[in-house]
Design goal:
Low-confidence stretches: none
Order of helices and strands: HHHHHHHHHHHHHHH
Structural class: mainly alpha
Distance between the termini: 100 Å
Helix content: over 70%
Mean pLDDT: 83
Number of strands: 0
C-alpha cells in the first residue's frame, strides 16, 4: 500500500509543499530533557566519564557538553571540556579573556584546568608575544601546587624545561613521581630523548639523572647516571657534569664502569686531582 505522501498531487507550480519537522528550538529542548532524564536515571559521574572518553569535537559530544553545562554550570570538568572543544576556534586573546576570571578567583581545580588550556594554546602559537612568555612563567609556577592531573603536570614540566626553568622542573618531577604515575619510564625516556634532540643538554641530563634517583634497579640506576653525565659532556657542560656526579653518584661510586666514566669526566673537565681520586678508588677495587 502506498504511503499518503505518494497520493498527493503536484501544485500548479510543480512543487510539493515540504512537510514540517521539528524546529531547532524543539530539538534543543528535547535534547535537554533527554540529558536531564539520563542524569536522573544514571549516575552523573558515569555519564561524564562516557562524555570525556568520546571525541571532544564530535558534534553530539559538543551538544552534550553545552546542555550539561546548563544543568551543572559550576562543574570544572565540564568547563574544561567546553573550552577544550573551542581551543582551535578561539583566538589567544579570546581564550585569555574568557578564562581570566577563573584563573584569578576560581577553585584550585578550575585554575589548574585554565592553566593547562592556556599553556596548550600558547604552545600552538608560532609567534609568542612577551605577554605569553610572562604568562607561561606564571602558569608553570602553579605546577608546584598539589592536586594536578598526571598529564597536565607533565605538560607543566615540559614547558618549564623549554624555558630552562630546570630547578622548577626538578621540583615538579618529584611531585609527579610521588603521585605514582602510570608508565613513568616511557614518558621519562621519551622526554630525555626529545630534550636532547632539541639541543637542550642540561634539560635532557636532568631527566636522566632524576630517573636514576627514581629507579630501584642498580642496572637502571647506572644506565641513567652514565647517560646523564655523558649528555652534559656532549653539551660541553664539564663543570655541571662534575657537580652532577657528586650529587647523583651515591652508591654507584663502588661500580667499576661508573668510576672509569668519572675518571674520563674529571680529566676532560681539567680536574686532575679529582681524576687521581677516582683512579685510587678503582685500584682499591682491583
Amino acid at each position: 500500500m502506498l504511503p499518503p505522501r505518494s497520493k498527493r498531487y503536484v501544485g500548479h507550480d510543480g512543487r510539493i509543499p515540504r512537510e514540517q519537522t521539528l524546529s531547532f528550538l524543539e530539538l534543543s529542548v528535547g535534547l535537554t530533557i533527554l540529558i536531564a532524564l539520563l542524569i536522573l536515571v544514571f549516575p552523573r559521574d558515569g555519564i561524564l566519564q562516557r562524555v570525556f572518553q568520546e571525541n571532544v569535537n564530535d558534534p553530539l559530544t559538543v551538544a552534550y557538553v553545552i546542555n550539561l553545562l546548563k544543568i551543572d554550570p559550576d562543574n570544572p570538568q565540564l568547563k574544561g571540556l567546553y573550552f577544550k572543544q573551542r581551543l582551535t576556534v578561539l583566538s589567544w586573546q579570546q581564550l585569555r579573556d574568557e578564562t581570566q576570571q577563573l584563573l584569578v578567583s576560581g577553585s584550585k581545580e578550575e585554575r589548574h584546568m585554565v592553566a593547562s588550556l592556556l599553556l596548550a594554546k600558547i604552545g600552538q602559537e608560532s609567534n609568542k608575544t612577551e605577554e605569553m612568555q610572562q604568562l607561561v612563567r606564571h602558569l608553570i609556577a602553579m605546577g608546584l601546587e598539589d592536586g594536578w592531573q598526571e598529564k597536565d603536570l607533565q605538560l607543566m614540566i615540559e614547558q618549564a624545561l623549554v624555558l630552562s626553568e630546570t630547578e622548577m622542573a626538578h621540583k615538579m618531577l618529584i611531585n609527579w613521581w610521588q603521585a605514582t604515575p602510570t608508565a613513568p619510564w616511557q614518558w621519562l625516556d621519551g622526554l630525555a630523548a626529545f630534550e636532547l634532540g632539541q639541543g637542550r643538554y642540561a634539560q635532557s641530563a636532568l631527566i636522566s639523572l632524576v630517573s636514576r634517583q627514581f629507579s630501584d634497579e642498580p642496572a637502571a640506576q647506572k644506565r641513567y647516571f652514565i647517560q646523564g653525565i655523558k649528555t652534559l659532556i656532549a653539551g660541553g657542560l664539564y663543570q655541571d657534569a662534575m657537580v652532577a656526579a657528586d650529587f647523583y653518584v651515591g652508591a654507584l661510586v663502588a661500580d667499576e664502569q661508573v668510576l672509569r666514566q668519572l675518571i674520563e669526566v674529571a680529566q676532560a673537565s681539567g680536574q686532575p686531582k679529582r681524576a687521581v681520586m677516582y683512579i685510587k678508588l678503582l685500584l682499591e677495587m682491583q
